[in-house]
Design brief:
The protein is α+β, with helices and mostly antiparallel strands. The chain contains 11 helices and 44 strands. The two termini are 36 Å apart.
Length: 704
């Protein structure tokens, strides 16, 4: 992309995939622990992920596989692989994931529709199944056979005996994959798992026939037929998801059964070892998400044992890494209403104190659990629990954001701070620390953020001002996400690069995390139940409180921008508070919550047939025409949406545009052809930032 006529920061943000490239991830190690393997692109503007290894003794690293050297380097891969990447919000290309044998000597990955094996000592990746759309390869722990999915069927391929189909296709039934809801909302992106003893392969059976078909078309390509999408909209049917274990050598199939009518969501699946024997471990959830059941099953007989069952008055949050076994003890995360805390529990006993909010479990071993938790919602720390009851903070000091990956004996720790946008990574085995090189690019602008807590609700907020040394009042740009499962107010400079760029255009940029955002406690998260629209109340109340402290905030000139839930919030602000908002940038908004997916929407608003009032309160466009108070000029709106978006479909934006047109409200529409929920085309991403800047300059200029 030529940056000659593009703003330098916009060009950089687009080329670096929002500064995500060049950061190592996807960690594994060998049985001896002498090397660490990971994925990383060669530099901060290179979108192609390569496979690397780091010698932890010498500190030397080398590239094992650069996918650009492979024969099918220009092939983007199968539609199923593209869908997997979309659900994972994968912005890079190349080797975006791999699997490794138990001893670390063999690695497998998918690239360009083919499957490859890399063996230590060989040094050459070899194609083992080529060009036919196979994806998500998983290697047998003992090495040798590889399981993968092709054309909705589950296959294996061995070193010498060729390919073998474990289960044949059925019309609109998919084997070995994660259904839309699991990958988009539950954090389960996989659909097949090898047993630790290499004898069994556990796989999902996904029947999508109950789900209504939606059709996605791109008007810019009239010769292309529309794409059929089985989308589980709120109140509608979900996929029927089952589980079966296949004995790989004999082909015998054993069903893992439960009451799927009562507990339709397969939240987690995999294997644990109990008394030296592998057991299927599955967690299932009721449609209202208030009941969660974890069971173990013998793969040979299907005989089951319920090891944990939770009933809660509010929907139960699914926590990454859960459940698991520490020896013979079940490890879970439990919502403790008495202390308003999400707490780690081992053998049903709380292992963490009130006030320490568990965010994710990193790893579980026989005698220890590693997890990420918050004492301040803007920060995260890495902790370790040991079976003697001790708790140790191993990364983070309450001043930044820390995360970890466990590759025994190594714990790979990533840390970002408020002082620098860089991410620092090191690996520790408890005795020594080994630095890991990152290749991400530093932003061309300096970030300066002031974080604070405001209002009686103690809402987290951040203010970003232009680096002009001035004292004149500034127009305000609200820059929220504002919804569940995501935060914008965090203790790292990296989170505010785009906000700082908008500030440098002459705005006071304000970021607020209101009710519904994570890390503050159960009651804070659940406060939006039955009414999403209250998130707007928090934005406006916090803005008023901030203006009392920061005199440069001009509340007569306020704009808002947001994407996804933030786009919903921006549209809500413009239509519900036109006396407060002059302009709104509305990106990929949910406009009618009846058109969003079951697991997310029903968690907060319930069944639309039984809770119509909740949906009417929350929707941007309701049954009544839009109106603006007499004497108030309707805010200008810039609506942006990708026509290939299969998460928040473009029908939302079209419905909003139609309602605004009928009401006579000024607005413009930027249709993004070929783009999904997040832009990936470099020029489009850069120009989109400029278009937002220019829109704000027209409607909320700096000069009074």
């Amino acid at each position: 992309m030529s940056s000659a006529t593009i703003d330098p920061f916009a060009a950089q943000a687009a080329a670096t995939r929002r500064f995500a490239l060049g950061i190592p991830r996807g960690w594994s190690t060998t049985a001896e622990g002498g090397v660490l393997r990971f994925l990383r692109s060669r530099h901060g503007r290179d979108p192609v992920l390569c496979l690397w290894e780091l010698d932890v003794v010498s500190g030397e690293e080398r590239c094992l596989v650069d996918p650009r050297t492979l024969a099918d380097s220009d092939d983007p891969g199968s539609a199923a692989e593209m869908s997997r990447r979309e659900r994972a919000r994968e912005l890079a290309t190349g080797i975006t994931g791999y699997d490794v044998s138990a001893d670390g000597s063999q690695l497998v990955f998918a690239f360009g529709g083919s499957l490859y094996r890399y063996e230590s000592g060989d040094g050459v990746p070899r194609c083992i199944a080529g060009g036919d759309g196979g994806f998500d390869p998983r290697i047998r722990p003992e090495g040798g056979d590889i399981a993968f999915v092709r054309d909705d069927e589950l296959w294996t391929v061995g070193l010498g005996d060729g390919e073998r189909r474990l289960v044949a296709a059925e019309p609109e039934v998919r084997w070995g994959v994660a259904e839309f809801i699991a990958a988009e909302e539950m954090g389960r992106g996989r659909g097949h798992w090898w047993s630790p003893d290499s004898q069994w392969l556990l796989a999902t059976r996904v029947d999508e026939r109950p789900i209504a078909t939606w059709w996605l078309a791109d008007p810019a390509m009239p010769g292309m037929p529309p794409r059929a999408l089985r989308y589980p909209a709120a109140g509608g049917a979900n996929a029927d998801v089952g589980l079966a274990a296949f004995h790989v050598d004999s082909g015998r199939r054993v069903e893992v059964t439960w009451d799927r009518a009562e507990l339709p969501y397969l939240a987690r699946a995999g294997w644990v070892v109990v008394d030296g024997r592998p057991r299927v471990c599955a967690t299932v959830q009721s449609r209202d998400q208030r009941r969660l059941l974890t069971m173990l099953a013998d793969p040979a007989t299907g005989q089951q044992q319920i090891v944990d069952e939770q009933h809660r008055p509010a929907p139960i949050e699914l926590v990454a890494g859960m459940p698991a076994m520490a020896g013979t003890s079940l490890v879970t995360v439990i919502d403790d209403a008495a202390s308003d805390t999400r707490r780690l529990a081992v053998a049903r006993d709380f292992a963490t104190p009130p006030g320490l909010q568990v965010r994710a479990v990193v790893a579980v071993e026989d005698d220890a659990v590693w997890f990420v938790a918050s004492r301040d919602p803007a920060t995260t720390e890495v902790w370790q629990w040991r079976d003697d009851g001790s708790l140790t903070r191993i990364a983070g000091d309450g001043e930044g954001v820390a995360s970890a990956v466990r590759c025994a004996p190594w714990t790979v720790i990533s840390q970002a701070t408020p002082a620098t946008p860089a991410v620092a990574i090191h690996a520790s085995d408890g005795r020594r620390s080994v630095p890991v090189r990152t290749c991400d690019e530093a932003p061309v602008i300096d970030v300066s953020v002031r974080r604070m807590v405001v209002t009686e609700r103690r809402l987290a907020a951040a203010v970003v001002l232009p680096d002009d040394g001035g004292t004149d009042p500034l127009p305000v740009l609200l820059d929220p996400y504002g919804g569940p499962h995501a935060q914008r107010v965090v203790a790292t400079a990296r989170a505010y690069t785009t906000s700082q760029w908008f500030a440098d255009q002459g705005y006071a940029v304000v970021v607020i995390d209101g009710r519904g955002t994570p890390g503050r406690g159960l009651s804070f998260e659940r406060a939006i139940d039955g009414d999403f629209s209250i998130v707007l109340d928090d934005q406006l109340a916090a803005l008023d409180a901030l203006a009392l402290d920061e005199p440069r905030l001009d509340l007569a000139r306020v704009a808002i921008r947001g994407w996804s839930f933030g786009g919903y919030l921006a549209a809500l602000a413009a239509t519900r508070a036109p006396d407060r908002i002059r302009a709104a940038i509305v990106g990929a908004p949910v406009v009618d919550w009846r058109w969003y997916d079951t697991h997310y929407t029903e968690r907060y608003l319930g069944d639309p047939a039984a809770n119509a009032a909740s949906y009417n309160r929350s929707n941007v466009v309701g049954p009544e025409p839009m109106t603006c108070p007499v004497g108030i000029q309707p805010p200008a709106m810039q609506i942006i949406h990708g026509f290939a978006d299969d998460n928040v479909v473009v029908a939302h934006a079209l419905k909003l545009s139609r309602a605004l047109l009928e009401a006579g409200w000024p607005h413009e529409f930027l249709p993004l052809t070929g783009e999904s929920h997040f832009t990936t085309q470099e020029t489009v991403t850069a120009r989109l930032l400029e278009a937002q800047r220019d829109f704000l300059a027209r409607w909320v200029p700096r000069a009074t």
